Amino acid sequence: MSVKIRLQRHGKKGKPFYWVVAADARSKRDGKFLEKIGTYNPNTNPATIDLNIEKAAQWLHNGAQPTDTARAILSYTGALLKHHLDGGVRKGALTQEQADAKLATWLDEKAGKVDAKKSGLSKAEADAKAKAFKAEQEANAKRIAAQAEAAKVEEAAAEVTEEVVEAAAEETPAVEENNEETQA
Questions:
Q1: What is the rounded distance in angstroms from the CA atom of residue 162 to the CA atom of residue 24?
Q2: Within 13 Å and on the Cβ side, how many CA atoms surround 39?
Q3: What is the pLDDT of residues 118-162, one digit of tens each?
Q4: Of 111, 110, 102, which Cα lies nearest the Cα of 81?
Q5: Which pLDDT does position 47 carry in this prediction?
Q6: What is the C-alpha separation between 142 and 109, in angstroms, rounded?
Q7: H or E stretch at 10
Q8: Which pLDDT value is given to residue 40?
Q9: Cis peptide upstream of residue 66 (ω within 30 degrees of 0)
């Protein structure tokens, strides 16, 4: 029986969520599996990977073959490095303490890179929010200025209308007197 380390899809349509599992190569993609090793959520930025490195390394020692995507995930989390270092320990090239120290150093560097990416993304998001807020303030200022200008125009139009009405009121009695004379 050949064993594969592969992804098993869960989640809803358009929002995939994967389990990383060790399964018989003949079983269906979302079917029976031997052991759940971890999870993978590609919907977040950066993708969220929760993997039990010890279990993954144990399955690799037993001969499990990862799929291409699973291999990338195992490499990203350090499971392949642990498998490689454990091979060196078995051959006598390293001691277990040296292997553990190398893995810990690599994991710390990887965590630093991931944190740098997260902070870069949050900074970019904050910059975008600040830029949008500034643009909104400018748009609001223009709108308020336009409203003030429209109010001045309406005021001027109202004054002109009042003057026209007053002028018409002054002329109206004379016209009424002429109308009374012509009727008599």
A1: 92
A2: 9
A3: 888 888 888 888 898 898 988 898 898 888 888 888 888 888 787
A4: 102
A5: 87
A6: 49
A7: strand 3-12
A8: 95
A9: no
Backbone angles phi, psi at 14, to 5 degrees: 85, -10
Return the structure tokens found at 179. 């109308």
What one-letter code names the amino acid at 134?
K
Structure pTM? 0.64
CA distance 123 to 129: 10
Interacting residues of 75 by C-beta distance below 8 A, sequence separation 6+: 81
Q: Are 66 and 5 in contact (CB under 8 A)?
A: yes
User: Which contiguous run of DSSP H or E holds residue 184?
Assistant: none
∠ CA 111-80-102, rounded to 5°: 55
Quote the tokens at residue 20.
């990383």
**Amino acid at position 106, single letter:** W
Place of tokens 């001027």: 156
Q: What is the pLDDT of residues 74-133, one digit of tens each?
A: 999 999 999 999 889 888 888 888 888 999 998 999 888 888 888 888 888 888 888 988
